[in-house]
Amino acid sequence: MSTTELVLRSTRVITPQGTRAASVAVAEGKIAAVLPYDAEVPDGARLTDFGDDVLLPGLVDTHVHVNDPGRTEWEGFWTATRAAAAGGITTLLDMPLNSLPPTTTADNLRTKQDVARSKAHIDVGFWGGAIPSNVKDLRPLYDAGVFGFKCFLSPSGVEEFPELDQEELARSMAEIAGFGGLLIVHAEDPHQLADAPQRSGPQYADFLASRPRAAENAAIEGLIALARRLGARIHVLHLSSSDALPLIAAAKREGVRVTVESCPHFLTLTAEEVPDGATEFKCCPPIREAANQDALWQGLADGTIDCIVSDHSPCTTDLKTPDFADAWGGISSLQLGLPAIWTAARERGHTLDDVVRWMSTAPAALAGLSAKGAIEAGRDADFAVLAPDDTFTVDPAELYHRNQVTAYAGKTLYGVVRSTWLRGVRIAEDGVPGEPVGRLLERNG
Ligand SMILES: [Zn+2]
């Protein structure tokens, strides 16, 4: 029996059974017990009382582009994990592309892990990549510890990470399904994109027309058909088109092994509000109309959409040219996802329990991170402490990611992260990150 070192107390602790007043006992970095609020504090244990601030499980962000090594001027493990810690995130999974090398072989994974190890302020794991040339590398990469594999169906934006055509997709999906792995997919159909009008310039409407809903819908329909045929487990990344929700819901009912994520920008920003030339709002698939956003929230409410993750994908400021066709696509929101989503969720009548399910419990389950994602005995003592009724206005200068460009500048948001805790250690306080005490995570590790 290990000794309780720490007791964290709040009138509002979010547990899988709901929100209640509780004392959380921590021993050796794990949650030892969730006890009544007024439980006696054991001799020698430290008590931290958060009062009415909410104690929630640390967020799990399974969609982050850290770009390190290789494009570290875009982002890096030091800066990304500090931003994450300040924002209440305790675990992130890094996407396999935009770094050099990309995470497409076991050797490349080791290279990335060596770079990340001393810089991680939170726990960090890695997705592998599935590209046309690496089917033989997938199994060794899985055995080396990646949590699953990402692929594109349309150009990724970087030449070292090519997309899969239909034949290559089927081959990779069959290989991954053969060893019980998960394939996560950027789902936009290249033929539908090629058929869409391509007009350059500063108008957001032109960019939106170039990435139609039909491209997402067609890609998702094809993926579901293939997953059904192969018995594969797939995950649809960054869903923007709400038109695809009925077919995803039908596939889930039928037992196809498909899960879905959406992102803060699709759920809190709208096409109607994007100013001309404001390419900090550019991402693929794109932010769509307000009515589309309402339907995405319905998809969250009815369980068709499982997770909300950032798709934090930064670049240097010079790549955000005012022409939507040329600018690098990607929205930086690592530090802001929780308040952005909470602000919209509360307006729509959702609770913090819902937000925790979407941003911590479900992403942890997606990746098989059984020690993360909930406040219950046996899990890691990872927490965020949130003042849900306090507000702040987003000042890019207060963000810790490397290039302080964000689509949320000037927004007033509900939910101030007071502190963040990783395995019982405070890793950020009042928005200021601490020491790099994060660990590298491997599947089953
Ligand atoms: Zn992404």
Describe this entry's structure for a reader.
The protein has 445 residues and is α/β, with parallel strands linked by helices. The chain contains 12 helices and 18 strands. Strands 1, 2, 3, 4, 5, 15, 16, 17 and 18 form a 9-stranded mixed sheet that branches. Helix 2 links the parallel strand 7 and strand 8. Helix 11 packs across helix 12. The longest helix is centred in the middle third of the chain and has 18 residues. Bound molecules: zinc ion (ZN). Zinc ion (ZN) binds next to loops.
**Broad shape:** globular
| Average pLDDT metric | 96
Q: Estimate the helix proportion, in percent.
A: 25-40%
Give the low-pLDDT segments.
Answer: none
- How many extended strands? 18
In terms of DSSP E residues, the strand content is 15-25%
Number of helices: 12
| Bound ligands, each once | zinc ion
Note the gap between the termini: 23 Å
**Structure class:** alpha/beta
Secondary-structure element order, N to C: EEEEEEHEHEEHEHEHHHEHEHHEHHEEEE
Could you describe the largest sheet, including whether it forms a barrel?
9 strands, mixed
Overall radius of gyration = 21 Å
